[in-house]
Design brief:
single chain, 342 residues, alpha/beta, Rossmann fold, Uridine Diphospho-n-acetylenolpyruvylglucosamine Reductase, domain 3, 6-stranded mixed β-sheet, 5-stranded antiparallel β-sheet, 17% strand
């Protein structure tokens, strides 16, 4: 079996082996080309590494899903890698969009649970540069701020003990397929990726090819450049928001955060919004249901000069906010809090 050192060298340059050689790594493998290439390359880069594969069967495609699972289990046998399998259920009657969101939440909950169980320091996924470009364009179409323009983070804290890493964001889908061909490794194809009732699939299969052909040759690279510039700007704003939170934070526990609003006097509303995003990130409260309207509500509540207690404001996913004199009190579900600075 031949190799493709260029792909492996690019991966090692993005995520050097000395960062993960001595710790546990959990690789999310669906059976598709990206994740199959990733686990192969990681094993080749460090044959002695403590790698575990996690495969999540969403339950959408009973026969095909079982075939995917068996393929991944066989792949792990051939690589000498332990495999952990999870199973989800697709509630009937859900729209494709809500089903996708629920599946993503279930998948990451499974990955985090397995990472804690096997002692993995990193959860690693196979998102590529093409996935990043699709994500950025999807965000643009929905309307987004700097954080959305930045796309997926290369590294994201999932819990105090576990971080998510996406080491293939600098590599394209064509490079993945070339690598798999070079090492003689097959992979699974998910037929739902052809379902153009899902916006993400329409972007991949219809909109991006149209833009590339008729409007903007090199559109993927342009979107990636936009993401890099937006990411630099977003990181600067986040560092300022985290410093603001450090000054304003009074109480924090898994279910409650209290902010001293006097520390926010004279602060720009946008920075206050970003401070609350940092709170959600640190509390591990889901942000997908929070839009600009909700972030503005929180900023207005924090910046108001009214000292009297305000009515309880209900936010998405059982989170509430209330102004009590100089303090803003947030209450929500306990979800494996991480550090605010992530």
């Amino acid at each position: 079996m031949s190799s493709n050192p260029v792909f492996e060298q690019k991966l090692a340059a993005t995520w050097p082996t000395d960062r993960w050689a001595e710790v546990g790594v959990l690789v999310a493998v669906s059976g598709g080309p990206d994740s199959v290439a990733l686990v192969h390359a990681l094993r080749r880069l460090n044959p002695q590494a403590s790698l575990t594969v996690a495969h999540f069967n969403h339950g959408w495609r009973p026969e095909a899903g079982l075939a995917d699972q068996r393929f991944v289990e066989g792949l792990c046998d051939s690589l000498g890698t332990a495999c952990q399998v999870g199973k989800g259920e697709s509630p009937p009657g859900e729209s494709p969009g809500s089903r996708e969101a629920a599946a993503r939440e279930a998948r990451y909950a499974f990955l985090l649970e397995v990472a804690h169980r096997v002692g993995a320091r990193y959860v690693v996924t196979g998102h590529t540069a093409d996935d990043q470009a699709e994500t950025i364009l999807h965000h643009i179409l929905r309307g987004t701020g700097l954080a959305g323009l930045a796309g997926m983070r290369r590294v994201r804290v999932l819990s105090p003990a576990v971080s998510l890493v996406r080491p293939l964001l600098g590599l394209g889908r064509a490079e993945v397929l070339e690598y798999l061909h070079a090492i003689g490794q097959d992979f699974r194809q998910d037929e739902t990726n052809a379902d153009t009732s899902l916006t993400r699939n329409r972007i991949r299969r219809e909109l991006l090819p149209l833009l590339e052909r008729d409007y903007a040759p090199g559109v993927v690279e342009a979107l990636l450049r936009l993401g890099n510039v937006a990411g630099d700007a977003q990181r600067l704003i986040e560092s300022q928001a985290e410093a603001l939170l450090d000054r304003a934070l009074v109480v924090r526990d898994p279910r409650r955060v209290e902010i001293d609003c006097r520390a926010l006097d004279g602060t720009d509303r946008h920075l206050v919004r970003e401070m609350f995003v940092a709170v959600w990130r640190g509390q591990n409260w889901p942000r997908q249901a929070m839009g600009l309207h909700e972030w503005n509500q929180l900023a207005e509540l924090a910046l108001t000069e009214e000292a009297n207690p305000t009515p309880l404001q209900q936010l998405p996913l059982a989170i509430s906010a209330r102004r009590q004199e100089a303090r803003l009190v947030l209450s929500g579900p306990a979800r494996n809090c991480g550090p605010f600075h992530a």
